[in-house]
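Structure tokens please, single chain.
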Amino acid sequence: PLCLITKKLHMRITLIFGLLVLLMSCQTDVRKTKELNAVHNLATRVLGQENAKRFVFKKIESVSENDEFKIDFTNEKILITGNSNIALVSGLNWYLKYYTNSQISWETKRINLPEKLPIADNPVIRKSPFSYSYYLNYCTFNYSMAFWDWERWEQEIDWMAMNGINLPLAIVGTEAIWKNTLERLDFTEKEINDFIPGPAFNAWWLMGNLEGWGGPVSDKYIDQQLTLQKKILSRMKELGMKPVLPGFYGMVPNVLKEKYLDADIRDQGLWAGGFKRPAFLSPTDTLFTTIANIYYEELKKLFGEVKYFSGDPFHEGGNAHGIDLPKAGENIVYCMRKNFPKSTWVFQGWGGNPTKKLLSNINEKDLLILDLDCDNLPQWEDRKGWSQKPWIWNAVINYGANKGLFGRMDVIAKEPFRALKHEEYSKGLQGIGAMMEGIENNYVMYELLFELKWHNNEIDLDNWISAYTKRRYGKESKNLYEAWQILRNTVYGKKLEINKSQQGTSESILCARPSLEISKVSTWGTSKLYYNPSELLKAWTIFVNEIEEFKDNEGFKHDLLDITRQVLTNYAQDLHGRMVSAYVQNNKKDFEKISDEFLQLIHDQDLLLSSNEHFMLGKWLEDAKKRGTNQSEKDLFEFNARTLITTWSFQNSNLHEYSHREWSGLLSDFYKPRWEMFIDYLKQKSAGKNVQEPDYYSFEKAWTKRKNIFPSKATRNPVEEAERLYRKYHDKIELSYKGITEHNTLYK
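Here you go.
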């Protein structure tokens, strides 16, 4: 009987174990099906339902933590296997790019699937040498994304996934976390409103640079952003991304000092533009742990489990005197991991931060460092590979979302692999990333950067550019390839070396506050050209000559417009120089003639840019107003939008013009009137009148409060405008450059 009981017990245990295994297997199958549904849904959004059915996706297990995919070819369908959803959709994008000459960019979408899908003799296999592809700067959320709705975010997340991005920053909706946290700390509604900024300035709030500027925002708006963030995080996670959310690092409202008199709360002084920084609660104070726990509890209620957090104590200054930095860094991470045990803290490697002391007590498995500006001023060698702690090679490329052709193409194609193969400092390198301040410009740089994820060695740019032009314009063109080689050797930085800093594009003097001498538009920028502008005329000519062949291609039209814009921008420096010379020489006739030409060029530039909504002020302002939840808030958000791209601050500060834009509407209504004020001032001075220089700030401040309407959709044809301007300006510019470059006064 005992044996019989034992046998029956064994059978029951075996049955229960089998059922558990079956249940776990079913759950795994359900999970895999759900994950693959996310991939199929993306393919349907991108390709349409019928075309999406021509692709089969299969998830595989892999011993590698890095993404990998394989593309198998059959006569009927394309089978893409991968070890993650990001790998699968990256495989889809690889096939679209390299086998169908399709391209999805910020400005255009061109899908070219023939009736019979192209095949190759052998499977395509790609394994990434990098664990991470990081994306987004805090600033991007304001300079480009401040007024995005879900439709625009959905497009961006699809693009991110297809370009292999698996570690994106996600700060939308953080206002709700702080509102809930401060309510639990007995803050009044006014105190909360005074802390949370407007929609165009929350990046610098979260980085500890300012509080309240551009606000207050309504509860309804905070709820709206909360809903948007939930959609963003849900989509990111289902596609296999690991979003990075703002963590608590000690940034607190200044008024907290009045509520907790005994706490170690530090005044942080002023930040650029005269802003009073938020206070800093020392992470070694017991109140820090209390507030951190509340913050993370509220975050978890709203957004669920999170694996990555970011935040940088003492970003761009701040007072660290007397703070035990090793213990501070340790407790910042401790509080995060207490609430999210498997989480990692992400630091920005920028301006000397994070310091060695701050990192010294943090386990290297608990942190990740973003070497932010590696295409320009990399830190990884000076910091000895960040002492072998995990880090990511990032490029900034763009500052302030300024318009201008710019990038270090050769640097980006080579430098990450030099770091990857470095004998001493490669151990901690975990990935590549983009931390631009503004997007929707210089698209080629980002397509190149994120393709690095799927290479083990530096990219042959001759071959890559050939393939890029083919998919960008729909077919092979030797002439456009030649034009792109010119672009590579001029605007895209053949002569730009790393560690010889230039912060973004050579700035357009059309956007500068008028002056007799202009060397830059924004405080930290430059208008100096690093290439011979006459060389760009050759690329312009090639594009114009190819109009008949490519006039219906969206990518071609965009690039034709942008090159035309850049040529006119460069020529403005010539006109300005001659206008100033005529004034200094008191040659009234020449001054009148050249100043009229200068103003006409601004007018022509405005007309050109009105042919594409990506270059139009109206779209920016209309998007801002749409995010407001009532008329008062719509007006406030328009003020946010106007202020960010002009005065930036509440006073005449060093931040003015930081986010200048060559946009239709802004040229005609803001920049041109300033130049007219300046030219009129010089004319009066030449006439012997005792006049004061124009008060530009008064004009600018008044402009930020205006409500005049601008078109938000294209009103002209970019091809027709480019042809018109080529006929009007090309020969004039060419002759001018021949005269100027002989005396070597325009470029160095």
